[in-house]
Amino acid sequence: MTTLPLLILGLPLVVSVAVFLTKAKLARLLALLGAGLTLVLTVTLWLTFNAGSTVQVLSLPWVPAAGIGFSFALDGPGVLMLLLTNLLIPFILPVACSQNADKESNLLGLILAMQFALNGVFMAWDGFLFYIFWELALIPIYFIAAIWGGENRQRITLKFFIYTFSGSLLMLLSILTVYFFTQGTDGKHSFDWVALMAANVPPHLAPWVLLGFFAAFAVKIPIFPFHTWQPDTYTVAPTVGTMLLAGIMLKMGLFGVYRWMMPIAAEGLPLYRDLFLYLAVIGVLYGAVIAIQQDDLKRLVAYSSLSHVGLIAAGLFVGNEFGVQGALVQMLNHGINVVGMFYVVHWIERRTGTRSLEALGGLAANAPQFAVLFMIILLGSIAVPLTNGFVGEFLLLNGLFQYNGWLATAAGLSIIFGAVYMLRVYQKVMYGNLKAATANVEEAGRLDLMLLSLIAALVLVLGVFPQPLFNLTADAVGKWLALVGG
Amino acid sequence: MQQIIPLIPVLPLLGFLINGLVGKKMGKSIVGALGTGTIASSFLFTVWLFIALLGDPEPIECVLFTWLNVGNLHVEIGFLVDRLSVWMMLVITGVGTLIHIYSIGYMHEDEGFHKFFAYLNLFVFSMLLLVMGNNFLLLFFGWEGVGLCSYLLIGFWYTKRDYADAARKAFIMNRVGDLGLLLGIFMISQHYGSIAYADVFSKAGLADAATIGLITLLLFVGAMGKSAQIPLYTWLPDAMAGPTPVSALIHAATMVTAGIYLVVRASALYDLAPETLSVIAWVGLATSLFAALIGLGQNDIKKVLAYSTVSQLGLMFVAAGVGAYGSAMFHLTTHAFFKALLFLGAGSVIHAMNGGQDLRHMGGLRKSLRTTHWTFLFGTFAIIGIFPFAGFFSKDELLAKIFEHNPLMWALTLFSAALTVVYMIRMYTLTFWGEFRGTKEQAVHLHESPLVMTLPLMILAVLSLISGLLNLPAFTHLQWFSGYLAPLLGEAAHIMTVSTELVLMGIAFTVAVGLGFWAWKHYQNPKQVPVEEEALKGFAKLAGHKFYVDESYDAIFVRPVERLSRLLHKLIDTKVIDGIVNGLASLVGQLGLGLRQFQTGKIGTYLFLMVAGLVLILLFNVIW
To answer: Looking at the partner chain, which of B159, B165, B179 has a beta carbon nearest the beta carbon of A362?
Structure first.
């Protein structure tokens, strides 16, 4: 049982190094093969995983004197996150290849390094190790955005870096604080998750521990009003970077809330739960309303993503079964949908040379198959029933409703706004008459159609048969609810 | 018997998939035959189920799989076929088949022929899901599904901006209602611990009155959106941008009646919520009157029919609101026949007019469009309630029930019915009587539609004539339909005397015939042909501009939200929040002035320092 997760963790790192060392076609081949194999391994892990268990993958003493262990473990939600990461990377790599980037093998290598770090974040079972992987994940994405990004990339990525890094430091303080109140078996302190859970943090410190964690996660997710790095970064980063950020990396923050913040700092929660919830719900509406009038497609999807992840965060903060189950499954589904949306945006930009809605129009006539696939992905994004997006949003809003009907109503307005801005996008891009930028666009190529079809298939299959995902997380969520007492 | 239930929605789904995926490569005749054949087969299976239920009214259930099982929420993809749902299925697949046949002719020249049939089949699938589901969430699936198909079909000719706008408006406005419905479902799940009909209705009384009141009100918000009631009705007239068969099937006969179905389906809850029922009755009545008034001033043949649909749906809600669920279902049925007929007839007219829809350019068409004319006349007689056409019986029953409940409401409903007579005869006369007012090219082009289009007209005309027999007036005791629904809705009490009933009937009939005759004479006068928009005055101008409701919504909702969007983005997000973030950062920078020697500005150095710091901490811990 433990070899499989270790392979999943190690393989991307090995392949990443190999890709850095090779060039051109071989690098592409290696990267795609590595990512494909990792996906196969992850799916195998999912299918064979005993959802009721928490599997200790590895537990080696690392710095015994400091109670730091090289320890990894997996439970159902952890497997779900691995699935998210390793499912999306194979879609992101071809996008990287389609950019004809300078030093492409470096770009591919960085993406795989990112994959390694992300898998590490989701498996880490030691607070210190978690922090290391957390920061490790920042490095590849920083370089991806700063090297291959668009205009103003230096300034914007630096801001992104400093902003998230500052939040992370506060989290480190929180982890250290809890650490000093742990009681290891040998009288020493320990960073082990179980030990951190059992720590007796004095009541006057508990809220501060919570806020420290919150600082890191609120910036990363991002939660209103800590989000202002996000639209700029999403827009300026190359599409692969945006996909990594929106599809997977922000789930680090949400998963952090689930795995670390809420269980470990549960004592401080009653005081701040409502504040967090209101911020999250404000973000849901705020992002949706701003998206209505955006002209740049990437920026528009960025604000819509702000709205969607706000709802996921709200589900976690509510902390009831509907909210948490909905949040976990929506993390995967949002990842699929947002990568699909950015794929669509990327294709449009590549073909027309613009992302401005005002310059686009009439593509449905020239690219009918693309139009259908775009529509399906869009339906997932606006949570139409029997698409994957509906499953999560239904449970999240239901969870919120059980806690507070008014909050749910307010957050529910986003399903109206979502239709407003997304259908505006579709109309402006696909309907109407052809314009200068779109006049010569032809049907999408075979590879694009194939990848978009796969995403569309995921949107539909996970919408019609969502239960297997809940089977994966149900037991773990049950235990979580007992710990957090939501 | 159970095994055939899933086939009924699955066949149209298959039709959708095949026509959608490979329809372009198949010939138009195969596409049309496949699209129509799937619906016709579903209709035959439905008839089979219907006959079975005539014998034994016990509902037939069929569960396919569990969609979701989280906490106490257990959602099945499961079907419930009882006398109510099978009736809706008959209407959907029956009228659906006729409209599919008609579309083969109507859409024949269109490039998107296969796409049209694919969407139409998808619609029928969704609509069947809506009425066949055994729980509220499956209803919601169908509910949003039909909304999506409606969006796709209204915007079918998407290169025209107005059409795409209309499609978007319909979807968004429906979503407003859908949110209400969704919140209602959350509340049901919260208070009943289940969303399956069987569980909720059997425990209906366990929740307190205020809760039930709120639940039923929220469900009704959904119904307002889908069935186009005040204040969520303005999308339906715009939806006429879609091809005319779509208007007939979706925006007249089936989808827009989903709200009525929801209220009747959940009657166990509504019976416990008298306040909600009276809200429904008054909203329905207000909508019925208001839409009829607007209908008087419209000059687009489809717009008149659209407002007429809004108005008739209002009548059904009045009936449901006074607890006469059976009467609402009866009128729903006859309306499905005669309104589908009227729309298809209008389509035939538009076909002949080469796309023209303006009443001002028609006139005298009865000579060249014989079949269309007499079938249209049947439809008109049915809707205004001329004996012995179907509408006479269904409207009469509805009026009688409303009279029992509240005579004032009866008078107002009768007024609405009177308005119906005027605007319908106005439209009929302007279209088919007088002299032709169109262009010369149009005059040459005028022709009757082919049989594939007129055959459905004839069948619907016969149905509009005879379907009143389903439920004759109470004093005859020949009320088959009431008896049919009795196992679900209970037997209605007859408290009205025969003489009262006859008097009411006489009044309604006199109004219909008298006003109808007057309007027929009146609108044959060439002076009564409506003038151009600019020359309109007074009431005609108000009605012509739909009482400026769209403009008001624009000013109250749309533009403020757009302004808010820009304000949040340009001021709050960019200046205030990001300004604070940047300000804090530069503050730190100022404080660090003294330490600037260490600031190389290179990320590499920062990363190095970070890693070095980590290593130091580790080392420190090892030594310590």
So the answer is: B159
